[in-house]
Design goal:
Distance between the termini: 27 Å
CATH superfamily: RRM (RNA recognition motif) domain
Order of helices and strands: HEHEHEEEEEE
Largest sheet: 4 strands, antiparallel
CATH topology: Alpha-Beta Plaits
CATH class: Alpha Beta
Number of helices: 3
CATH architecture: 2-Layer Sandwich
Amino acid sequence: MVAEDIILRPVITEKSNDALQEGKYTFEVNKKATKVEIAKAVEKLFEVKVLKVNTVSVKGKEKRQGRYVGKTSDWKKAIVTIDTNPSEQTYLAKGGKETKISKKYKDSIDEFMGA
């Protein structure tokens, strides 16, 4: 799946806005997407480091219009925790030399609130 097909739209509620300070962003995602695919899609689209992904399958509600009864669609919600303080990582390379990885990651998703 392509990253644009996995992340459908952000979910903006009071609870999701409160979680933004902790680095948790909520998205509506494809029902067939896995946690690993969601993490890779968010990293690719928003250039952030994803620490954790929690998913919830949301069941559709029963709605009625007069005597007619229908049901809204089921959908999948992903709560993505990003690294709000990205730093350089070091590891030991061949020969015992210390090597640094200095990928440029953002510390927030600016596009989330339409900024």
